[in-house]
Design goal:
The protein is built from 20 helices and twelve strands. It has 573 residues and is of the alpha+beta class. The strands form three sheets. It has a six-stranded antiparallel β-sheet, sandwiched between helices. Strands 1-3-2 form a three-stranded antiparallel β-sheet, with no helix packed on it. It has a three-stranded antiparallel β-sheet with strand order 10-12-11, sandwiched between helices.
Length: 573
């Protein structure tokens, strides 16, 4: 037999307000299994705390009813915690999950029929102090055992997640800390002589840590906490409390005009209702205007970026548009775009905001963070990645490269499942962390930019193939002549040399050895030419047995040396 007195009524009132606030706030969040599990956790906690508070206040329809609500919620809390951890860590053991759900449901039904704990007896002392006397039997061991199993399974799942490679579990430690607070608080609340409701207070701390875990995972928009509906809810409560403070003065004022108690009550009720609604309406309109304005700015940026990228097929222009919109929208000053060079098998730096960056940076395809974002649907925040075993397995040179580039976020550029590029994004100028809204904005730009970049690269590849001679891989005649015309137009007053190479007796060579050997000879000569000329020179196949080389900015002697170098190599054929 135990006696429980509950002073400090402000603690359960604060808990009820906090739980209901989070529930209403998350009603406007984008729903997922994780969000639903959190809302269920808050709902059960609200029933537990609210039922306990109303029981002690002997609120209608009676303390027996609110005791039933509270005790059923108490036995449901372990499963709510287990379910949240299960969703947070992407559990896939459906048999275990469904079994725990059915066991919890059975415990809740049996609790309603007072199998484990009968309704306590209310005792009013001579001093007027109310206590509740509980009679706990041996059957209470069953819900206790289930609670231990659920907590144990949750801890086991966390331990397994820590061991798994690539698993980001930094927020899980907050879950464990919250569970520890909850357990310690419930133990302290039943110690002899303790009057402070440590169980309820620890529940508030646990709920806050669980909520903070969701913010670390960026599972929802932070600005939903100040959404119009949440602000209206808080304003109604605050308005009601403020209005209640003036009830006494209002009654005296009204009694100066009428002696009817009914009239006084009606007038005060109407006045308080109008006051609360007016305050709530003003706050609702103000926050709605602010939130809509902020969302409109983001939507305009995404829309303008989409229009800009749809008007060009130039890869470098699209990269410039990506960096501009991200720098403006995220408040960053450092961004680098790496695109896959299939010949090298590496990601090479293709665009950077800072012109002083080293342009020769290359990233191997087997770098751990490349493997991570290849298998992930979202971007990778470096601060979280640093806590993983994957980061610790990286070479020091790879870590130093990320640090030198001031990287805070890494996001993929995809072509279906193929990772064609990556964005290395720096820290914000104000050093603020990336929020849920930032991630959503970044993923929108990344999605649109990926499509635009892949289309532009496909266009350039098609154009390159159209300008290429299929046999030798050099420019064909039309493409060569167009490039020469462009160079002449750009270098009107500069010198330019032209080399024409014709293969002697090539027709006879084909007749003696066959056309296949003739093709091999052309390919060999083309490779000799391409290995000899510089990057600024232009080489192409002019006709069946003729090659032409344009040497911008070079004189006759330089052209002669180039020709001799090619001929000496060709003589080895």
């Amino acid at each position: 037999m135990s006696s429980t007195a509950v002073p400090y009524i402000w603690v359960p009132i604060l808990a009820v307000f906090f739980y209901s606030f989070l529930l209403i706030a998350f009603c406007s969040a984008k729903k997922s299994k994780l969000i639903y599990s959190f809302m269920w956790y808050m709902f059960v906690s609200l029933l537990w705390t609210g039922g306990s508070m109303l029981m002690r206040m002997q609120f209608s329809p009676g303390y027996e009813f609110w005791y039933q609500v509270s005790i059923i919620a108490v036995f449901a809390i372990p499963y709510a915690f287990y379910n949240f951890v299960y969703c947070y860590l992407h559990g896939n053991n459906r048999i275990e999950h469904i079994s725990m759900e059915l066991f919890t449901l059975a415990i809740m039904i049996l609790t309603y029929f007072q199998v484990f704990l009968p309704i306590p007896v209310m005792h009013v002392a001579a001093s007027g102090k109310t206590t509740f006397i509980y009679y706990a039997g041996w059957r209470l061991v069953f819900p206790t055992l289930l609670a231990v199993i659920l907590v144990g399974l949750s801890l086991k799942r966390v331990a397994n997640a820590v061991k798994v490679k690539h698993q980001m579990v930094s927020g899980v430690y907050l879950l464990l800390l919250g569970a520890a607070f909850l357990i310690v608080g419930n133990i302290m609340s039943v110690l002899p002589g303790v009057q402070f409701p440590f169980d309820t207070f620890s529940g508030i701390i646990n709920a806050f840590l669980v909520f903070f875990t969701l913010t670390r995972k960026r599972a929802f928009k932070l600005n939903l906490l100040v959404s119009p509906y949440v602000v209206l809810y808080c304003t109604l409560i605050v308005g009601a409390v403020l209005g209640a403070n003036f009830i006494g003065d209002g009654i005296k004022l009204i009694q100066g005009f009428t002696d009817s108690i009914t009239a006084v009550i009606v007038i005060m009720s109407v006045a308080l209702t109008v006051f609360v609604l007016l305050v709530g309406l003003l706050a609702y309109k103000a926050i709605n205007r602010i939130s809509l304005r902020r969302e409109q700015v983001v939507q305009d940026r995404v829309k303008n970026f989409s229009l800009a990228t749809s008007k060009t097929l130039n890869v470098h222009e699209i990269m410039g548009d990506i960096s501009d919109v991200l720098c403006e929208g995220l408040g960053i000053s450092h961004l680098m775009i790496f695109m896959l060079d299939r010949d090298k098998g590496k990601y090479v730096l293709s665009h950077t905001v800072n012109p002083l960056d080293n342009k020769n940076i290359e990233i191997d395809r087997d770098v751990p963070y490349i493997e991570y974002i290849k298998d992930s649907d979202t971007c990778l925040l470096l601060n979280e990645f640093k806590r993983s075993t994957t980061y610790r397995s990286m070479w020091e040179s790879e870590k130093r490269m990320l640090a030198d580039c001031d990287v805070a976020c890494i996001t993929p550029i995809r072509n279906n499942k193929d990772l064609t590029g990556i964005l290395l994004i720096g820290n914000k100028s104000n050093m603020a962390p990336y929020s849920y809204d930032d991630i959503v904005f970044l993923e929108s730009i990344q999605s649109i930019g990926s499509i635009a970049l892949n289309n532009a690269m496909l266009f350039e590849e098609t154009k390159r193939r159209a300008d290429m001679d299929d046999l030798t891989g050099m420019l064909n005649r039309n493409a060569f002549l167009k490039r020469v015309d462009d160079i002449i137009a750009a270098q009107e007053n500069d010198q330019l040399s032209l080399i024409m190479i014709s293969i002697d007796d090539f027709r006879l060579y084909n007749e003696l050895y066959g056309s296949q050997e003739g093709d091999k000879a052309l390919q060999y000569i083309a490779s000799m030419i391409m290995n000899t000329v510089t990057r600024n020179d232009i080489a192409g196949r002019y006709s069946g047995k003729e090659f032409c080389i344009c040497l911008p900015g070079k004189n006759q002697m330089q052209a002669l040396r180039t020709t001799e170098s090619i001929c000496s190599g060709q003589a080895k054929l």
